[in-house]
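Researcher: Here's a chain I'd like modeled. Treat it as a single chain, no partners, no ligands.
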Amino acid sequence: MTLDSRSLTPAQRYALVLVDLAVGFTDPQRSPLASSCDAVVAANVKLLEAFRQRGWPVFFTTVAYDSPVQARVFREKLPALNILKADSSLVRIDPRLEPRVGEPVIVKFWASAFFGTNLAELIRQAGADGVMVTGLTTSGCVRATAVDALQHDFRVLIPEQATGDRDAQAHVANLRDLSIKYADVRSVEDCLALLG
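Model: Modeled as a single isolated chain. Structure tokens:
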């Protein structure tokens, strides 16, 4: 039996949520959490430029810890997260995507950009009723953020080429599952066209 999955009505105004495009996830020479993702970064550069031109809201996220009690069970499960110390250069957004003044960098401890943060409130204050969720990694923080965005009643759009994962099979499987249950997965060009 197949689910009756439908495309969402486009949002009136999207917020761009760039998930964990920090050096610790984009530079495999410096971090075991990273993957070779130059094409993903380039796709995000294109989306970022489009949002900035329209004056639409942009939010970055990063994972950074300054206490051993933060997300302790998550860090027990995935010890590589411990390199993401708050004072480390690994938690800074990749310089190719340098945030501008007025573009918040949300510091999170868990997978979802919404859990334990005020992101939903900030998106609503910016007048957005939808989110484009991009970044790293598809099977982890991108997925968790997209699911939570829907649970906050936002219309969720995922630009396919603007997401990536260390595991190619997990990337494909999670995009497929997200597209059935939680979000619309589209090409970057189709997402740009929706901005009007």
